[in-house]
Amino acid sequence: DSIFKRFSFSLIANVIRALVSFTSVILLARWLGPVDYGRMTFLISTFMAIKSLLDMGTSSAFFTFLQEREGVRGL
Question: Which residues of 32-67 are buried (b: 16+ CB within 10 A; e: fewer)?
Answer without folding.
Answer: eeeeeeeeeeeeeeeeeeeeeeeeeeeeeeeeeeee
